[in-house]
TrEMBL record:
<feature type="active site">
    <location>
        <position position="126"/>
    </location>
</feature>
<keyword id="KW-0645">Protease</keyword>
<keyword id="KW-0812">Transmembrane</keyword>
<feature type="active site">
    <location>
        <position position="140"/>
    </location>
</feature>
<dbReference type="InterPro" id="IPR001872">
    <property type="entry name" value="Peptidase_A8"/>
</dbReference>
<dbReference type="GO" id="GO:0004190">
    <property type="term" value="F:aspartic-type endopeptidase activity"/>
</dbReference>
<comment type="similarity">
    <text>Belongs to the peptidase A8 family.</text>
</comment>
<feature type="transmembrane region" description="Helical">
    <location>
        <begin position="131"/>
        <end position="153"/>
    </location>
</feature>
<comment type="function">
    <text>This protein specifically catalyzes the removal of signal peptides from prolipoproteins.</text>
</comment>
<keyword id="KW-0472">Membrane</keyword>
<keyword id="KW-1003">Cell membrane</keyword>
<keyword id="KW-0378">Hydrolase</keyword>
<feature type="region of interest" description="Disordered">
    <location>
        <begin position="162"/>
        <end position="184"/>
    </location>
</feature>
<protein>
    <recommendedName>
        <fullName>Lipoprotein signal peptidase</fullName>
        <ecNumber>3.4.23.36</ecNumber>
    </recommendedName>
</protein>
<dbReference type="Pfam" id="PF01252">
    <property type="entry name" value="Peptidase_A8"/>
</dbReference>
<feature type="transmembrane region" description="Helical">
    <location>
        <begin position="69"/>
        <end position="90"/>
    </location>
</feature>
<keyword id="KW-1133">Transmembrane helix</keyword>
Amino acid sequence: MSSGQAAAGTRARTGRVAVLLTAAVVAAIDLAAKAASEARLADSTVDLGLLQLQLAHNSGMAFSMGDNLPVAVVVAITAAIAVALAVYVWRRAPRAGWVERIAGGAVIGGALANVVDRANDGVVTDYLHTGWWPTFNLADTFLVTGFIVIALLHTRPERTADTASVQANDHTSNPPVTGHPPQS
């Protein structure tokens, strides 16, 4: 194995570990906040000005869509979306920068926290209320923020050049088939 391949392997592992650690921290923070909300906000609301802490439960998906579907269907749909997101971020992590890795981990962690919460009792615990937007939770915030960061990163003009450069210098992929043996 060449030093370039070893460095690429280390970069892949480091990127994926960063994503997993971010996802675990994000999920833990949200699940702890949900547990605290269940315990402390059952009979009260805390007014923080523009934001109120108010306990609510969402039996549907985003904006309560699908709230009439059976719980197993909603859990299956949200779990499938979470798995698809995780696969994308996992495959992208070796080539991604730190900001994209953290954003990807935030997306995975937020999705995972909502799936775990829903799997317990069929609803997602929400506790952040604005009065002008549906009540939400930190997992939703991490998901949306992560998606926005990733989308913004993908719109950068230099990203296209960076991706083309990485692909041109990627010696781990298979060379094109030309009918001739590879040159050393």
